[in-house]
Amino acid sequence: MYSSTTIDYGSEKDHIETLSELVKNKKSPWFSDVSWSEELPLLRQIAITDPDKLTPGYLKKTFKTLRLIDKNVTKIDENVLELKNLEELSLSANYLTSIDSEFLPSKLKVLELNANSIADIESLVKKPPPLQHLGLARNLIENLSSHISVKYWPNLMSLDLSENNLRDLMTLIENLRSLPKLRNLLLCGNPVSLMPSYRGYTIDSLGGLTSLDDVIITADEKHDFKGMNKRAELLKNEARITLKIPLVRGIPSSADADEAEKNGQEYPVIERKYFVRFPFISNVEKKLIKSADLVSEPHEKDTAGKKGPKGKVKSPVQKSHEELEIERLERERLAEKERIRINGPPLIVPFSTCMLEYDADQLSFEHEEQYRVAALLQLKQLFKSGIKFEVVEEKTLYYPHGQTPEELAAERASSGKRSQQRSRKASRTEQGPIDFMKERRKSSILADRGTTPNKAAHTPKAAAKKGSPGQTGNLFGDLVKYSTTQKTIGSAVFELRALLTSTDQCRLKAALHAGGGPMRPEDMELLETPPATAASDLKKDKKDKKKAVVKPTGGKDKKKGGVTGAEEEGELLAPPIVILVELEVRRWTKTKHFVKEHDYWTSFTQHTSSSSTAVV
């Protein structure tokens, strides 16, 4: 017969407490991660106190949450249906390409499928559970078709579609409009989020939303965007980008390199110019706002007094708004499909600023350009990788006509042949004829060169005055352009991911370190200083540094040979090459801004189309 005492009861209780501590202690060999299910701590406690209770049937009924994150899951099967009370399932960061809703429990409320490889959700709507939240962020979805609608998701309150490849805002919103309970929506990181009308059109179209991209929608926002969804016929699936490159600093001097290349000779004359090069999408409509070499802006002057159409644009055919919208979208889709068939997808091609001559202080490019980009997916990829800005030096060599390296080499070769022939003939004659032949040969060579013993050698002024047929006038008179080469002397990448991950962020400004020495505090101050002020401040700082240099004392020898620490440091450390860049993604904050800017761009497009300028 078995009997228990108080001591036995106490020892059993101590044993349970010891096991519980071992399970919770991270340094214990019995410790394991419990984050994959909220019910796991309870089940582990039952395993210690009443292990017989843990039958397969009990376990399947107990699980309400299951998180299999980054577990190399490729598909789900019918075994998931055995978890009948499962309410939350997370399969993020796996290798799923599709998910069959027939294998999802009927009580499931939360489904997370983020960071997979899902491109289509057709299989998810076969037998969808009554989800309240659906997470499909960071997948490959380009078109939801009609798979997001009240027919399949009548209880959906939260939807995360961020960081996909959705490009058609109006079609997307039209599908989402049918969800009666939708309150929280995430679309940031999609190409559509780069559209200036994105936030306003979404808020005005989905009146029940309380949060968009994790930003609470205020009553003021709803008021400011009121009426934007009624101007859908004017909205385009395009982004509007403004790029500014005000200045570049720290270009190294090329005086020593020029002297070394000339090697003490008068020619070649060397011209060096500098510009900034950067990649962008090929088929964009662009407008140059400001540049260092821009004299006037006729487009703004011509269109300043013009006003665009007021009110809603009416169709000459009596059709409903929905019919007109469907026709417009279909035309755009077919036009884009045909363009891609003929030309292929838009390419990334190099763009550049104007060229400026060397300046020891800074090169003030004052470059500002606006782009209208319809290739939203390519723009997103460009922002993800960042834009690489390069400072390029273009070197051009000039020679006088007839004195290029090839021409001089050919002249020397032909002169050498004639000299050898005449020497052989002269060796068979007497001294008198030899002297005569020397004079004749000398005269022949000089005649070939286009001069006489009494004429002066070529000088830059003489070359400029002389001229030759077929030459064009340039900065160096009538010197001939011999060769042009380009060399990248510095580069840096402008990181732009922040413009994708947050719709609050619409402007980024950076002082890019493109080479040279380390960045200095005054270089970072460029972000807060206007370019013109920065140039004057730089000159003032140079003067102050010269005045602050302590002159060595102790005689003429020390004055000549003394070098201060500041001078030594200036010689050892090269200044950094700094590119000041600013990029803005246009985002409308009010409906009236949208109407005004649309009318302005319409006037500009009509003007440029008639004059055949400024469209790439």
* Helical amount: 25-40%
Structural class of the helix and strand makeup?
alpha/beta
Main beta-sheet strand count, sense and barrel state: 8 strands, mixed
Question: Widest sheet: strand order?
Answer: 1-2-3-4-5-6-7-8
Strand content: 15-25%
Terminal-residue CA separation:
98 Å
Enumerate how many helices there are, as a single number.
19
Radius of gyration: 38 Å
Query: Regions with pLDDT < 50 over 5+ consecutive residues?
Result: 5-11, 295-317, 430-437, 449-474, 549-570, 609-616
Report the average pLDDT across residues: 76
The number of strands is 18
Label the overall shape: elongated
Mind sketching the topology for me?
Blueprint: H1 6-24, H2 40-49, H3 56-62, E1 65-67, E2 88-90, E3 110-112, E4 133-135, E5 158-160, H4 169-176, E6 184-186, H5 198-205, E7 211-212, E8 215-216, H6 219-224, E9 239-249, H7 255-262, E10 269-281, E11 285-290, H8 298-303, H9 321-343, E12 348-352, E13 356-357, E14 362-373, H10 376-385, E15 387-399, H11 405-426, H12 431-449, H13 460-466, E16 480-494, H14 498-501, E17 507-516, H15 521-524, H16 531-548, H17 556-561, H18 565-572, E18 576-585, H19 591-611
Helix pairs in contact: 1-2, 11-12
